[in-house]
Every structure is written in structure tokens, then in C-alpha cells.
## 1
Amino acid sequence: MNSLLPRVARGDRAALREIYEAQASRLFGIALAILRDRDAAADALHDAFVKVARAAGQFDPARGSAEAWLAAIVRHAALDLARARGREIPAEGLPEPAEEATQLHSLASAQDGVRLRECLATLEEKNRTEILLAFVNGLSHPQVAARLDVPLGTAKAWIRRGLLSLRECLA
Amino acid sequence: MTPEERDALAGEYVLGTLDAREAAALRARLASDPALREAVEAWERRLHPLAALAAPERPPPGLLNRIESTLDAARPRRRALLWPALTAASAAVAAGLALLLLIRPEPSPLMTVLLTESDQPAWLVEARGGAISLAAVNPRGIAPDRVAELWALPQGATAPTSLGLIPTEGRVTVPPGRIRPEAGMLIEITLEPPGGSPTGRPTGPILFIGRLMPARGT
């Protein structure tokens, strides 16, 4: 995958198709978790791949894997669409709190996921829940606050505290 | 902004909780704020494993075609200017050369402008008499622990040839002999570890890229 992106940067369409074939399902899943609407998720994946074709030259393997780079582009494309829609996205399809344990379990099988899971486990449950909901499901500060039934400022402060603890734990 | 605030903001951006205005403001600062860029990259690395929590799902059929259509439609903006111009220029140069050969034996120089990712001109490149010279028009620094390496990829070649390390500003001349400049050749500058690419091929991101073409009106 790392060798495909430089080819994309030189305008090699076959390399772009190869990336799409290998990554589209994973990346579509990431967009769908945030947008919970197949048409919108397809729009996000479209925007992301157009960006990939244009920005492939900026990929720097010294700073992370191609998979992570692609996922970040797709997430931000999906988040941009979610913002453009005022994040009026149905809450249905969001994981129930009980599912989070299973979610975290699957994290351990992900590359680099073990350490992150251990660090997430050290967080207070409400901080952990918010971080997962925001990252995986694209919930905004107000949405997190509404879901946990706390004032906006409290939700923001919890998220900041959660991020800070994570950073210290992962350092 | 304190380093703590910057890091918290970068974390919230990567997490996705910033609203549209805050996210746009942060993005606007990224290009000119290396510390913020570093902080965002660090958060992307930390949180990336969470992306595995989203269940894979097959995208609708036809999406790849739609992506390619968009790219084809976008291409004229960047390329159509280049290719027809290149063909027309080649014909004109060929015709002109026949007339000019007696008067001016030196072949027409090849030129290109290397652009940044935001399409700003960064380097003027001119190939004349087998030498390639570059002049920075929009210098920008790179990380102190990295170097810029110049490459040329002749049309049809599978791997670029290194033309050596270059300073990130000022003027550079590659003497004749390293490579024979020709129309259609890609010239690119990549970011590499100190001493240059250890593999003989570009390993870092492409900072600038452009394609040599005959200069008209010369």
C-alpha cells in the first residue's frame, strides 16, 4: 500500500483502483459509522478518494501507515459532510453502552490497538464512552452532551480530560 | 496559544468534535503552523486504531466509476492546459526548429513550474544544453531533520533517477550528464531522511512536481 500512493501521485490510475479495491469496504464502514446513511457515506468516500488522488504526494511513510493516512482522510471527509448537514444524523444505529465492551475487545485485534485499549480502560467510563462516540460515530460536543444528559461545558471538559489522560498513558 | 491549548485543540480536531467553523479555522492554520501540524499528526497516530471499531461495509457498486469521472472532469484544469499545449508547442517547435536551425542551432529550452499542493508556484525549472537549473520563487522551510531530494522520471521509465540533494531555497544547477532532459519528463522534489533516500527511490512525500515541456516564444 505504501508503494501505491507515490504511483497515485504521478497520476497512475491503476494504482488508485488497486487502493480502492483493497480498502473501500474498510473505509466505507468508517464513513457509514459516522454518517449512518449509505448515500451520504458514498459521497464521503467519493470526496475522500478525489482528495487521495490529488494529495497522494503528501503521504509520508515516515509518519504513519498508508492505511492510517487513508482512514484519516475518509473520517475528515465524513465529518465535513456531517457538519454540512448540521449533524442532523439519526441516533439509531449508534452502539448501545453494552456494546462498548465488545467494541473495545475488537480493538485488541487491531494493529497498535492493544496499548490504546489498555489506556482507554484506565479512563472513567463516561470519558471513554464520549471518546469512542466522537471518534467512531462522529458525535459533536452538543450531541455527546445530549446523549449523556450533561451540560455542554461538562461534556467538553470531560472530553478534554479524557484526551489528556490518553496522551499521558500512551506517552 | 499555549502548547497545552494547541494540543487539546488538535486532539479535538482529530476526534471530530470541533464544529464546522472551528475545524475550518484549524485547517487554515495547519499550512503555516508546523507545531499544530505535528500535534494533529500525533493525535491521528494515537487514535487511529479506533478506526478498526467501524464494521467494514461494501460500498455501492459504481462508486469507483463516479470517483474516476470526477477525476477525469477535473483533469482539464491541470492537464488539458499542459497536454494540448505540449503537443501544439512540440509541433510549433519542430516547425520552428526547421527554420531556425540555420540561425540558432541551440535547441529550445524545456521548462516547467513546480507547484505546491495548493497550486502555488514554488520552483522555476529550466533545462538547457543538458543542464537542469532550478530557482526557488516561493521558498518554504522543511523540517530540520529532513532533506529535499531532486528526481527526474523520463516518460516511460518506471523509477525516477536521483539528481541529488538540494537546498530548499535559492538556485540549483544539475550539470549535464546526470540525465538527458526531454519533453514530458517529470521533475519532482521529495522529502527524505538526512543524506537522501536510503533506497535509491523516493521514500518520502512529494513536495513539488512538474513536467518539462518546450518553452514557447524562445
Note: The domain at 4-84 of chain A is CATH 1.10.1740.10 (Rna Polymerase Sigma Factor; Chain: A).
## 2
Amino acid sequence: MAETSTTSVTARLWHPVARYGDMVRLWVRAELSYPASFAMLVVGSMLINALDFAGIAIMFSSIDSLGGFGLREIALLYGATGVGIGIADTLIGSVERIGEFIRTGRLDQMLTKPVPLLVQVCSDRFTLRRLGRITQASVVMAWALPIVDWTPSRVLVALLMVVSSSALFFGLFVLFSCVQFWTSDASEFANAFTYGGNTLTQYPLTVFPRELAIALTVVLPIAFVNWYPCLYLLGRPDPFGFPEWLQFCSPLAAALVVAAALLVWRTGVRRYTSTGS
Amino acid sequence: MLHVAVASRAFRRYSTYRAATVAGVFTNSVFGVIYSFAYLALWKANPDAGGYDAVDAVTFVWLGQALLMTVALWGGGATDDLAERIRTGDVAIDLYRPVDLVGWYLASDLGRAAYHFLTRGLAPTVIGLLLFDIALPDSPAAALGFALSIPLAVVVSFAIRFLVASTAFWLLDASGPRILTGALAIFFSGMSLPLVLFPGWLGGLAEALPFSAMIQVPNDIWLGRHTGLDLVGALAFQAGWALALLLACRFVLALATRKLVVQGG
């Protein structure tokens, strides 16, 4: 009896992951059926991201430091947030298109299938092209890593930073996409927080006013994506004079945002009534 | 008359999505705020970087946000419809209509651009004005020059997007070239960083490419960096690229039509 219930718990946890894997495989096969376009999408994605960092690097031909931070320190911030949003976007980026599913009635079809709705939405049109961002951000971050004076605790904080920033962006993608349960054509609203959060965290928080820094810590904890853990990695005192223990709180912030996102998702799905036809 | 009708219907088509417009204005404004603070920090470190002062830099940010959707820098607009119609084969119907295809889609895209200019162009600019110190047009001539340069910017952008969509005649799926061109446009238009900060040959290259006609040139006209004959030259640069690229559209379309096979009967 005890054994069967353990098996069913494992099966219940494994089921969504396995179905996600199945659907991802199908989409990858579909994507590869237009090889010329796929090759250009991959090159394009790498180019977009390379040019993105080039913009920041070119800034440093006119200045030595931005908000008190050098180019390599900014590269560390840039890499950390880029890897985070890259992983989240690759795995679940399609959740942005929830409004489209509602408008076209595909969400109704999905609700009838024996796979969790979030898994179906997130795996839809999975694309390998998004790996371009993770690759580029990893390269930028690798270039910045030698400036850190590594200790075991810093290695741990760095690893937790990558996991937490992915989870934070996962939460932001889901949380703000849920707005579309209420207004199905406002998908761009989420961009302000997801891609906006990514752009904002590419710069040191010191370029922003103190009030905004506080809001990004306690209201919408985007500063935990990279800013606080990077301060610890770089061994820098907090420029705003905020408590040092914040530098270890990224996993907690990520857990809170993910929990909030899942709660809002459930509320949105419960509230959802088909558009009819 | 036909083209006015096409343009006004495109305008109305885009104006249906009100929540999308509000969400877009909000997003443009958030990015405007982020870039404004980043540029203020940059110009604090180097007060006359690229010959701009801090007010010019912040003005540049908000004008960029206003033009982003107007010129459809990332791609999109009427040319996305074309790419889809090429993929599905519906373009065959467009081709046997007694209307020039380039003119038809250009009219439709101008209608879209007018809508985006009046909403996603004006609204973030007002928000920028309320939040930051922004320079108004340098002179009446600069204001008039800016007003002339926007349609030219849209036509240059349209012609590039039309060429990109036309690749679907050969590739079937134009999303690869679309994304590639979008990336180049963001970088070389001045959207990701004003071209005045680009060093040496890279700056020269960026200013010569047609992408600079979409953001950098209109913004510099607003800021009064082109005056007198130089202002005429800046507008002629845009018009020259617009003309050359529209001719290229005609040429590519002629090539594609020869290649297209219409099946069935």
C-alpha cells in the first residue's frame, strides 16, 4: 500500500515533466523542417544578443565607469541577468502568448487534454533559437568571472544566483502574462517587467534613484536577479547602505515570486470562461 | 484615392486593439525611464559624450521610444501580412489584382504608422516630458524638418521590411531574415545607443547605412544638429535611401513573380 502511493506520487510529479519533454521534441522536429530559416534564426538570435552587449561596450569608449562600476563588473551583472532570462524564456517563454490561445479558442482545446495547462502553454512552439541568448550571456559572464576573488561561499552564491534569477524570470513571465486572462490583447504589458527587468538589471542599480532601488527590493524584487548576489561576489559594500544580508536573499525572493505567480495563474485559470464562438 | 482608402482602413484596423495600445504605451514608457537613467549616468561621467549634453541624450531616448513602433523597427506591420500571404500562396490573388503590390502594402503600412505615431509616439513623449527634462524642437525649421523626416523614415523602414518579407518567395518562412534585420535595425538605427557614440569607422558605417534614416536622422533634426543646407542634406539622405530601396522592392518582386507557380485551376 505504502509502496503504491509512493509510486503514484513520483508518477504524478514525473508526468508533467515527461509530457513537457514529448512536446518539446515535436516542436524541435517541426522547427528543423525549414533549415535555411532555422539557420538564420540562430545566427540572428546570436547577433541580436551580441549587438546588445556591443551597445554597452561602446558606451565605455566615452566613459571609464557607469554609476561607479567598470565594464567587467557590468559584464558580470549583464551575464547573470541574461542567463536567467535566457533559461526562463527558453523553457516557458510561450506563456506570453496566452492571450492568443484565449482568442483563438486553443485554450479550450488544451483544457480538455490530460496534461497540466501550464505545461501545454509553456511548451507550445518551443524553439532552440532561444539558446542563442543563454550562450551569449554565458560568454559575457565567463569574461567577467576572473575579476571575482573566488571563495567557496562565493561559488555557492554564484550558483544560487543563476538558479534564482532563472526562477525569478520564470515567475515574472507567468505572473504578468496572467494579465491576459483579463484583457487578452495586452500581451505587451508583461514585456515591461520581463524584458524591462532584464534591461534594467544590465545596469548597476546605482544609476537609478534610491526610491526605485527600494521598490525593486521590497515591492517587485527584481534587484535580487543579480544586483545583491553580485555585490557579494565583487565584495563591494552596498552603495545605498542597505543591509548586507540582502545579498543572500535571492533564493527567498525567487521562491516568493514563483509562489505568487502560480497563485495568480490558478486564479486566472479558474476565472477563465471561454470566449465562445 | 485607392491608396488613401487602404491607409485609412489600416489605421482603423490597428485602432481596434485598445488594450494592446495602452499596454504598449506603458512598456515604451518603462523602457524610456530605464534608458533615461542609464544615459544620465553616462553623461554624468562624460558631460559632452558624442557632442550631446544630458538633456539631448534623454530627449534622444524618448524620441527613440516614440519612433520605435512608428517605423516598426523590430519588423511587423503590413509586410508581416505579405510574408504570411506568400507562405500560404494567397499572394497569387494579390498579384492578379490590377493594383501595384508595393504601393498597396506601402499605403497600408503608412496607415498603420500614422496610428502608431499618434498613440505610441505621442503618449510616451508626453510621459517623458512630465518625468524628465526634455528638449523641444530646436527651431521651427527643426520641427518642420522632423515632421518631414518621419514619413521618410517609415518609407525606408517599409522598403527594408518588404524586401525581407519577399525572401519568403524563396525560403517560404521569412522569420529568420525578419529577426536578423530587426537586430541590425535596432543596433544601426541608434536605438540601442546613439550613433554619435560609435567610434571611428563603425560610426561612419552606421551613419551611411539606411537604418540611420529611421531613428538617428530624425532625432538629430529635432535636436537641431542639422541646420540650413545640412538639414536639406539629411532629408535628401533619407529620400535617397527610400527611393533606392523602393526600386529594389520592384526589382525583387519582378524576379519573384517570374518564379512563382500558381497551382490548381
Note: Residues 22 and 161 of chain A are 29 Å apart (CA to CA).
